[in-house]
Amino acid sequence: MNTLTHAHAAPVRRASPYAVEMRLELVRLLRTPAFALPMFLLPVALYALFAFAVAGEMTARDPDAARFMFAGFSQLAVTMSAVFATCPSLALEREQGLLTLKRAQPAPPGAWLLAKIVAGVVCGLLAYLPLLLLTAAGGQTQLSPAQLAAMSAVLVAGAIPFCALGLMVGSLASGSAAPAYANLLYLPGMYLSGLFFPLPASLHFQAPFWPQFHLNQLVFAAGGVAKFRWISVEMAFAVLLGFTVLCSGVTLWRLRRRG
């Protein structure tokens, strides 16, 4: 009887460090106004300004324009939260020696790293939900609930490559420099991938070099929006997978050096 009890209790004990790390990492982020307020308020404010106030007449007449703006600003909400939920915290913990302390604790070695990824995805979801509610209430995109659900699933899953990007920068840069380097790598891709406005023909050649472009293609494919699709789903998925593996590999290599 005792043997069976211990056998059933062991998986719970093994899982608890992961759950504790995830909860603490998420609570820490949500209790940091310098992170939470910009990440959760800026995307929905920009979306409401441009999609409803500035270009409201255009998006009301043209559902494709409304879908284009919804996809772009939704991706901003999800990916920006993912990058900045992971990058600065990892860089500061490295700099302050907290990773050395974590290695000495009797906890699974990957629990804190998994917690940062999960927290980044959850923060991306929380930043995205106001945009989803605003879009569903406005009805300008003329997307069905099934289409919105499919696009939402891809957007939330698409936070993972950008968590990997944030972790890579956080593992390489100092605590004070990490946000600046993250901006240098992340922000140009938001504009040069054509998320917010159609690119001129002279810039089309460079758009596939940015992971934001490939996530956008997957979002449009999930929603059945054919007008803004330029490459196959398989190609977009392969590029994002390769990008995630590359960033994760650099992160693990750097963290193993313990420097």
TrEMBL record:
Q: What is its main location?
A: membrane
In its keyword annotation, does this UniProt entry include Transmembrane?
Answer: yes
Q: Which InterPro entries does the UniProt record give?
A: ABC2_TM, ABC_2_transport, T7SS_ABC-Transporter
- The reply on keyword Nucleotide-binding is no
Q: How does it sit in the membrane?
A: Multi-pass membrane protein
Question: Ranges for the ABC-2 type transporter transmembrane domain?
Answer: 25-202
Q: Where are the transmembrane segments?
A: 35-56, 68-91, 111-136, 148-169, 181-201, 236-255
Protein name, as recorded: ABC transporter permease
**Top-level taxon of origin:** Bacteria
Query: What keywords appear on the UniProt entry?
Result: Membrane, Transmembrane, Transmembrane helix
Q: Where in the cell is it found?
A: Membrane
**Which Pfam families does its entry note?**
ABC2_membrane
